[in-house]
Design a protein that fits this description.
- This protein is of the alpha/beta class.
- Helix content is about 35%, strand content about 25%.
- It has eight helices and ten strands.
- The strands form two sheets. The protein has a six-stranded parallel sheet with strand order 2-1-3-4-5-10, sandwiched between helices.
- Helix 1 packs across helix 7 and helix 5 packs parallel to helix 6.
- The longest helix has 16 residues.
- The protein is elongated and about 65 Å long.
- It starts with a strand and ends with a helix.
Length: about 240
C-alpha cells in the first residue's frame, strides 16, 4: 500500500514503523506544519490515508480524503458530532471510510465481553456498575473515546439504566465516566459491577501504543478494494 499519514504525533510515528515493517510505503505525511499539503494532487499517489490527528482537525481531513476519492482510516476521537455528516458524504461520493474509537484487537475483544456481561447482569439489579479510564496526561479528550464506547455498550445491553460516576449509581438515564490522567499510562479501562456481597471486574491495560498501530494498519489493509463504511466489528468478523 501507498499510505498518507495524517497526524504525525506519537501514534503516527508508531503507525509508520508498522507500515514500513510490512513493506508498505508512506508517500505523504501531514501534520500541523503542512495542512495545505492534504490536497488532490498529493493524494493521487496514495492508496489509503490513515488519520490520527486532533479533534478539531479530524472532520476536515476526513472530508478532504473522501472528496478526493481516497479511502480513509480514522482513529481520532472527540469529533463524532459530525460523524453522520461523514457517513452521508461517503455515501454520496461512493467513498470508503473506516472508524474506530480504539484499534487494539484486545480492546475490541474487551468490547464484546463488556456487552455480553451487561446482558448477563440484567437479571441482577443489586449490582451497581461503574466505568473508569486512566490515560497519560497528554491525551486531549476526557473521557476517552474507548471509555464512551464501553459505556455505550453497557447502555445498549443493560436494560436497567444507570448513571456511572466513580463508584455510585442512580436510576437516571445519564452517563458519566471517571477519567483519570497520569504521567505514563498508555491506557487502562475498567468496568466494575458491585453488590453488597461481591465485586466483578473486567479491565484492559495497554502496555504501549504498538497494539493500536497494528490494528490501524490492519484496518487499512482490510479496506483495500472496498467501498462503504466499516468498523472494527467488520474487521474482526472477516
Amino acid at each position: 500500500m501507498k499510505v498518507a499519514l495524517i497526524g504525525y504525533g506519537k501514534m503516527g510515528k508508531e503507525i509508520e514503523k508498522i507500515l514500513l515493517s510490512k513493506k508498505h510505503t508512506v508517500e505523504l505525511i501531514i501534520d500541523i506544519n503542512n495542512p495545505e499539503d492534504l490536497n488532490s494532487e498529493n493524494l493521487k499517489n496514495v492508496d489509503i490515508a490513515i488519520e490520527f490527528s486532533a479533534p478539531d482537525a479530524a472532520y476536515g481531513n476526513i472530508v478532504k480524503c473522501i472528496q478526493y476519492g481516497t479511502p480513509v482510516v480514522c482513529g481520532t476521537t472527540a469529533w463524532l458530532a459530525r460523524y453522520d455528516d461523514v457517513v452521508k458524504l461517503c455515501k454520496e461520493k461512493n467513498g470508503t471510510f473506516f472508524y474506530a474509537s480504539n484499534y487494539s484487537i484486545g480492546v475490541n475483544i474487551f468490547f464484546k465481553i463488556n456487552r455480553e456481561l451487561a446482558r448477563l447482569m440484567n437479571k441482577f439489579g443489586e449490582y451497581d456498575v461503574t466505568v473508569e479510564e486512566v490515560h497519560h496526561t497528554q491525551k486531549k479528550d476526557a473521557p476517552s473515546g474507548t471509555a464512551i464506547t464501553i459505556a455505550e455498550g453497557i447502555l445498549e445491553n443493560l436494560e436497567r439504566k444507570n448513571k456511572w460516576v466513580c463508584g455510585t449509581t442512580t436510576t437516571r438515564e445519564e452517563l458519566e465516566i471517571c477519567a483519570i490522567r497520569r504521567s505514563v499510562v498508555p491506557g487502562k479501562h475498567t468496568v466494575t459491577y458491585e453488590s453488597e456481597t461481591d465485586l466483578i471486574t473486567i479491565d484492559h491495560n495497554a502496555k504501549s501504543r504498538v497494539g493500536f498501530a497494528v490494528g490501524a494498519v490492519a484496518a487499512a489493509e482490510f479496506l483495500c478494494g472496498k467501498k462503504g463504511i466499516y468498523t472494527m466489528e467488520d474487521l474482526m468478523n472477516e
